[in-house]
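Sequence, please.
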């Protein structure tokens, strides 16, 4: 989503743009998310700071967060910085910057939706954050009210009766919900990325499907060595998500990124029932969302290395919890899908120039919100590359902040 959106905005401005990816657009991390454009997500995900949360996660049986010990050891310095940046004082500053991107997400997506003719993939009725406990429901409503007052987030508090009118198939374990009303959902996330990519091609862009073996300065521009040839250009934008950091090592950049993986599986609903909205089970930490392929169950975060083997434990725990609240029938997928979210220690993405190399630009590290923030990143980076001012202060997203 991020790379395609940047390519689209640059092509719209008249640049000759070649988009390079090892797979076709929409087939990597952006394929497997919950498919939400989260206008309400004005804060990133901090490292757990309370002893209650730490002790809850430590046994490694929680649904929302699990971890691999090998990854925790390998990424210990970065995770330590993540913990420090999650202190109340630091997090307040970080969240202000983060929200300055999120508030534009639906407007920026709408520009690409209109250009690509992808409106049929979009549902603008919002999604439901469902609660099993009245105390956590009350806290959730208070948080939503604060987001409404500070950033114009639209929501409706739903009691048990109102929730079950919206979603009659939910069990009585669901006692209420926050209905996020100006967030959007997408019936086929990979399909939306593909639609944006086809619009990019219609703007005169070029797509090359290939692995990138290396990148290096070449005169005043850059050369990419591909599996099947080379490409040269005046400027290079690196938007490779979790694969960005390995590509930068030879250039001397050390950006504190780690991976939070996620899994999904599709299911049929039980006969005669329907899921009307995407729902997030707040008290368990997974998402169910209606998709073209079926009802998609999406897990929380797994702290692991990107190439670690898949582990079904988190998905199976989420599946058991989901069946308590909604009547899922059989699985529709033969294999579990796995993706890697690129997370920066201070929770904000890197967007802007690589200050030690001319004509090299960065756009990665969006954590859980690359799908939401792709078009906003594309608009801002295209303006920066063109030398134009941006309404958003980009200083918090500079690569040299580390």
């Amino acid at each position: 989503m991020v790379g395609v959106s940047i390519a689209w905005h640059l092509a719209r401005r008249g640049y000759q743009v070649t988009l390079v990816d090892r797979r076709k657009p929409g087939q990597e991390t952006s394929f497997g998310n919950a498919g939400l454009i989260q206008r309400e997500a004005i804060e990133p995900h901090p490292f757990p700071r309370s002893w209650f949360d730490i002790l809850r996660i430590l046994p490694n049986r929680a649904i929302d967060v699990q971890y691999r010990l090998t990854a925790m050891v390998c990424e210990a310095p970065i995770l330590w910085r993540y913990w420090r940046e999650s202190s109340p004082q630091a997090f307040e500053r970080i969240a202000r910057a983060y929200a300055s991107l999120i508030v534009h997400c639906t407007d920026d997506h709408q520009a690409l939706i209109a250009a690509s003719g992808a409106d049929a993939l979009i549902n603008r009725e919002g999604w439901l954050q469902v609660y099993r406990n009245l105390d956590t429901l009350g806290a959730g409503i208070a948080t939503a009210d604060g987001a409404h007052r500070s950033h114009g987030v639209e929501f409706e508090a739903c009691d048990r009766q109102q929730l079950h009118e919206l979603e009659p198939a939910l069990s009585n374990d669901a006692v209420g919900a926050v209905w996020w009303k100006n967030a959007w959902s997408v019936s086929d996330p990979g399909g939306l990325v593909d639609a944006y990519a086809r619009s990019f091609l219609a703007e005169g862009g070029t797509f090359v499907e290939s692995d990138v073996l290396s990148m290096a300065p070449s005169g005043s521009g850059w050369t990419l060595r591909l599996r099947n040839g080379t490409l040269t250009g005046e400027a290079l934008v690196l938007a490779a998500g979790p694969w960005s950091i390995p590509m930068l090592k030879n250039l001397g950049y050390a950006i504190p990124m780690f991976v939070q993986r996620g899994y999904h599986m599709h299911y049929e609903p039980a006969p005669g029932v329907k899921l009307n909205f995407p729902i997030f089970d707040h008290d368990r930490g997974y998402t169910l969302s209606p998709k073209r392929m079926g009802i998609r169950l999406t897990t929380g975060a797994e702290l692991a290395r990107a190439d670690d083997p898949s582990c079904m434990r988190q998905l199976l725990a989420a599946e058991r919890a989901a069946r308590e609240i909604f009547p899922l029938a059989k699985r529709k997928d033969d294999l579990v899908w796995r993706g890697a979210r690129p997370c920066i220690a201070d929770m904000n993405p890197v967007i802007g120039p690589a200050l030690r190399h001319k004509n090299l630009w960065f756009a990665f590290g969006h954590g859980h919100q690359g799908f939401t923030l792709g078009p906003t990143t594309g608009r801002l980076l295209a303006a920066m590359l063109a030398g134009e001012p941006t309404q958003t202060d980009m200083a918090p997203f500079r690569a040299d902040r580390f």
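The chain is about 35% helix and 25% strand.
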